[in-house]
């Protein structure tokens, strides 16, 4: 959805009602409080599931500041320091203990226009034994017009005397086709339980809203979730690898602009949060080979109107509905960055999905039950950090402490830490 939403102040509504507990429980506010793919928030007026994490006290600390539109954050296993990307093209290493910031040399040149630039960062799951660090970013290609989402990797040794640097960094994948414009690059990267690298790619703001849209065209790698090997090749077990007319890297399609992605440790399932057109933001359980509907099925409005953009998912055959969504007229939840909480600092939140929102300016907390794209249910709870007026770009859990870290989307932004009060 758009980065601003004049219709509804979601934070005011949430404070007035004591938290977002679902459309069934609060019918008078259903328009502003989201919906669900399969009655996960109460059914026919039933009360929502109980929330053990409702009364957790926390404090907020500044870890470091002065970042220019930070986009991705990731901890280095066995080291404790935090990698931070900034959209204009800088990669930094932050020591959470004292806030020291060191620039990491060797980052790629990026197409830093519009929503493009240096985007996400992920660390190889066997780090430091395998010292590769992965970046997603938008870039052009010599001799061609336009840009696309790239994946690159380089090794980050930490025993050098000349400051941190990515060694041998190179692009290992570029989503086809390249397109002009500067919107909807995605892009999150995360490793699955089997070591495969998942990457979300936006639809590059294709406005050909019909069955020929790039998100519905399996020959492209746009508007899709890709599954790659750690070397950047298409995963050999991808669903369309035997289809000569489909892109080998494709894992799922029918996406608009997924900017949050996380693996649920209890099930190993891949989850995404995706921007709608106007409202219509979604939380999806992403499964192999599925079509998630964009733009032939959507819960969004047409920009500037209250008119549904397309038939709803449950009115369209052959598409997979979101497990949670913000319907047309709701004010939406434009998402960026997500993690399933698995730390020790906040045991009441263990297993919850934490997702940042941009225009609504808070950190969302969602309790999750059930499994699968059809069986999972989601309940949004009282927002975190709702008094900060921060656009939440990325979120991560510190392995050693279980503290939560958030990157704020601003031209002069902090990295903040949430700790028990």
Automatic annotation (TrEMBL):
Pfam families: GSDH. Residues 31-54, 226-247 are annotated as: Disordered. InterPro entries: 6-blade_b-propeller_TolB-like (IPR011042), Glc/Sorbosone_DH (IPR012938), Quinoprot_gluc/sorb_DH_b-prop (IPR011041), TAT_signal (IPR006311). Residues 67-416 form the Glucose/Sorbosone dehydrogenase domain. Residues 36-54 have a biased composition (Acidic residues). This is Glucose sorbosone dehydrogenase. It comes from Halorubrum tebenquichense DSM 14210.
